[in-house]
Amino acid sequence: MTRCTVERLMKRMELQGARRGKIVRTTIADTAAPCPLDRINRQFKANRPNQLWVSDFTYVSTWQGWLYVAFVIDVFARRIVGWRVSNSMQTDFVLDALEQALYARQPEKSEGLVHHSDRGSECLSIRYTERLAQRRVLSLP
User: Fold this and answer.
1) 33: CB partners within 8 A, 6+ apart
2) Residue 39: which H helix or E strand, with range?
3) Whose CA is closest to 117, among 107, 131, 134?
4) Which stretches make up the Integrase catalytic domain (predicted)?
5) Strands across the sheet containing 79-86
6) I want to staple 76 with a disulfide (CB 3.0 to 4.6 A). Which of 3, 14, 46, 52 is the partner?
7) First-to-last CA distance in the chain?
8) C-beta of residue 65 within 8 angstroms of C-beta of residue 88
9) Which residue in 130, 110, 138 sits closest to 54, CA to CA?
C-alpha cells in the first residue's frame, strides 16, 4: 500500500502511529487569565518594516536534552529580528528575544508597531507585557 492509503485508512479508523521520545508542550495557556484580542485577525501581512512582529518559541532535541528557541519575526521583512536559546521554558528567554529585536530594529513609538504572540503564559507574563507597554507596542495573542 502507498503511504497516502495507509494514512487515509488510519485516519478513518482513528489510529495514530507510535511516537518516539518525550512530548514537550511549549504553549501552556492560562485559561483563567484574560487574553488580549486578536486585532490582526490572523492576517500576517505588513506594508512596511516594524509594522507587525510575531513571536513564538519551539523546542529542539539535542544530544544533551531539550533546548527551547524563542524568536521574533518582522512580518514585512520575513526575517528573524530577535532570538534566544535556553534550556528552560521561562519568561526570561522570550523576553531576551524581544529585547534583542527592540535593540536591533529600534522601532519608533510613532510607527505603530503591533506585536502578535500565542497565548502562552511566557508571552502574557507581567514582565513581558510591561516591556511591550514601555515601548508602546501592542501585545496581541
Assistant:
1) 121, 124
2) none
3) 131
4) 45-141
5) 79-86, 65-74, 52-62, 114-117, 138-140
6) 46
7) 43
8) no
9) 138
Q: Where are the domains of the chain?
A: 19-140
CA distance 127 to 86: 18
pLDDT band at 139 (very low <50, low <70, confident <90, very high): very low
- Cell 511591550: give the residue: 132
Three-state SS at 127: helix
Write out pLDDT tens, residues 35-91: 666 666 677 888 889 888 888 888 888 888 888 898 999 999 999 999 999 888 777
CATH match for 19-140 among 3.50.50.60, 3.40.50.12280, 3.30.420.10, 2.60.40.10: 3.30.420.10
Q: How far apart are CA 79 and CA 96, in angstroms?
A: 17
- CB-based contact 77:101 (threshold 8 Å): no
How many residues appear in the chain? 141
pLDDT at 140: 46
DSSP E strand stretches across 28-134: 52-62, 65-74, 79-86, 114-117
Q: Which residue shows C-alpha cell 504553549?
A: 27
